[in-house]
Amino acid sequence: MSQDSIQHDNEGPASPAVLPPDPSRRFWLGTACAVGGVAGVATAVPFVASMSPSDRAKAAGAPVEVNLSSIAPGTMLTVEWQGKPVWILRRTQAMIDGLAGQNDHLADPNSDRPGFTPEFAKSTERSRKPEWLVCVGICTHLGCSPSPRFAVGGIEGMASDWEGGFLCPCHGSIFDLAGRVFKNQPAPDNLEVPPYYFIDDNNIMVGLESAA
């Protein structure tokens, strides 16, 4: 088992003549230089060691089975699927309760914009079960990987009524604990929710919406 790193990409806004960077390439090339950043948040945000499927499965983009039993409430696991980091956050009841109060501050609170949210996740929690958030950890702006900011309140430049979420270090986009983007941010859309389903209470399959 290996601990995935969070990318800190300091590139400025892309020129219109330049294609947006490939998200998976950004994520993996940033690994070596992001170790210090991960250590900086580890004291405040507990993480579970990440899991890596086989190289053959990665190359094929195969579905990834993930065991949830080691993820404590308030902690997050990162796995790789199709070359992208997928976050699996086990939300506490307080985290769940704080989501509804964010709606007035969000650009797309009901996830109505197409392309990033499957039908099963078009709810406040954006998940199959309120306790679990499963989303792709790549900002919808230019492909950086946001950092977790789970502590509530006016910390690290956040508003005093901050209920926890994610901050993109590249251009400052912020997302709530359902991966919904706030208004007037560089990111145009909510974080992507991948297809997944619960095999049972302790296991999910990322990459498929059902077993059939």
What does this structure look like?
The structure is a single chain. By secondary structure, the chain is of the alpha+beta class. The chain has one domain (23-206): Rieske Iron-sulfur Protein (3-layer Sandwich), CATH 2.102.10. The chain contains four helices and nine strands, in the order αααβββαββββββ. A three-stranded antiparallel sheet has the order 1-9-8, with no helix packed on it. A hairpin with a 2-residue loop joins strand 2 and strand 3. The two termini are 29 Å apart. Mean pLDDT is 77; it is low at 1-47.
Task: Jot down its keywords.
3-stranded antiparallel β-sheet, 212 residues, disordered N terminus, alpha+beta, globular, 19% strand, Rieske Iron-sulfur Protein
Number of domains: 1
Main beta sheet strand tally, sense and closure: 3 strands, antiparallel
Number of helices: 4
CATH superfamily: Rieske [2Fe-2S] iron-sulphur domain
CATH architecture: 3-layer Sandwich
| Lateral strand order in the biggest sheet | 1-9-8
Q: What's the total count of β strands?
A: 9
Q: Name the CATH class.
A: Mainly Beta
Dominant shape = globular
What is the helical fraction, as a range of percent? 10-25%
Low-confidence stretches: 1-47
Query: Rg to the nearest angstrom?
Result: 16 Å
Average pLDDT over all residues? 77
Task: Output the structural class.
Answer: alpha+beta
Distance between the termini: 29 Å
User: In what range is the share of β-strand residues?
Assistant: 15-25%
The topology string of helices and strands comes to HHHEEEHEEEEEE
Instruction: Return the CATH topology.
Output: Rieske Iron-sulfur Protein
